[in-house]
Amino acid sequence: MTKELITQPRECPLFIAEQFARQSKITEAIAFGSGNINDTFLVAVDTPGEPYFILQRINTKVFKQPQLVMQNMRSLTEHACQKLQSMNLDRRWEVPRVLLTKDGFDHCSDAEGSFWRAISYIQNSQSFDTIQTIQHAKEVGYALGMFHNLIGDLSPASLADTLPGFHITPGYLQQYEQTLSLHTDTNISAEIKHCLQFVSDRTNWAHVLENARTEGKLPLRLMHGDPKINNVMFDTETNKAVSVIDLDTVKPGLVHYDIGDCLRSGCNPVGEEVEDWESVYFDTDLSQGILQGYLAIAKAFLTENDYLYIYDAIRLITFELGLRFFTDYLAGNIYFKVKHPEHNLLRALVQFKLTASIEYQEANIRQVIKDLQR
Ligand code: GN1
Ligand code: MG
């Protein structure tokens, strides 16, 4: 694969950061994290007890109505905070807060019309791109369960659909077919051929979750939308999960999208950005750990049918992400940020290899789920 580097300017405009810093003095502002969509900065301020906050430029090509994202975020964080208080939890748990500007708004714009917003930083915490231990896996699962529990009694209709089509696999297949029909490049590498075949072999099955939803087997609930492993924050001292961040995609959907996303990212020990895609595999011990942590909380609200679709969810969301990366590669890298022109192709190969490993271990994974359901 050829690798021509694409560099992106990532500068934090201080006058925007100042809007959210309010009375505090900014001491530093640096590019932060590894998000594929928004631009994120960590802003250091001289506020005692709260020395950092997160500033983000929302990608409005993806989130076309960013004010609705903020509206959702305010409703859900308010609800989750209230619920948390009433729970008297015996461990640390935090919900990120939406920060307001000096003028009391939840966002502001710059001269180019970019949409900026700020979120509280979960102090004394860190995130990981891969799971380190089984205990770590259980904590990731606990975090997702806790998140679903905190938003579970908020009606799905109370939040707006800020990203129509998100995680609807048949819709991504349609986009793929359309992109493919416009693709005129005759230079088809072995890797591209492999991806084309991989998708075409799974087209008929890709409706599995949407069919279950339309048949009434899986209910529409609120979901996180993007509970990948590095969106779970861990206390730096206790090593316990303390928060789930990145709340842009919290909206009506299926909890199965979340279960699938959490496991596809958590059970891939070499990580989703690995170069050597052939080394990728799905670790079933880690999946047992995550599901054990998750079900310790989620068994209270999951139905019999929910359990039946957990395996499909893990396989489908992994496949779907591969399909999304591959489509974006064919379309010329317009959705996900890339570091080089073949980056999305490589990411697709990683997710497809992970899907194949999940399929190979189907019986084992189904057994893990069955044993935990008892
Ligand atoms: C995107 O931007 P980031 O990294 O939080 C994407 C997710 C993917 C993820 C893969 C809105 O999330 O769906 O799973 O990349 N978010 C959106 O790393 O498309
Ligand atoms: Mg995200």
Kindly describe this structure.
- The chain has helices at residues 14-21, 66-87, 134-151, 169-182, 190-200, 208-214, 255-266, 284-298, 304-308, 310-331, 343-360, 362-373; strands at residues 26-31, 39-45, 52-58, 98-99, 108-109, 115-120, 125-126, 221-223, 232-235, 241-244, 251-253.
- The longest helix is centred in the N-terminal third of the chain and has 22 residues, at 66-87.
- A hairpin with a 7-residue loop joins strand 1 (26-31) and strand 2.
- The protein has two domains: 14-123, Phosphorylase Kinase, domain 1 (2-Layer Sandwich), CATH 3.30.200.20; 134-373, Aminoglycoside phosphotransferase (APH), C-terminal lobe (Aminoglycoside 3'-phosphotransferase, Chain: A, domain 2, Alpha-Beta Complex), CATH 3.90.1200.
- The strands form three sheets. Strands 1, 2, 3, 4, 5 and 6 form a six-stranded antiparallel β-sheet that branches.
- The chain is 44% helix and 12% strand.
- It is an alpha+beta fold.
- Residues 226, 246, 248 line the site of magnesium ion (MG).
- Magnesium ion binds next to loops.
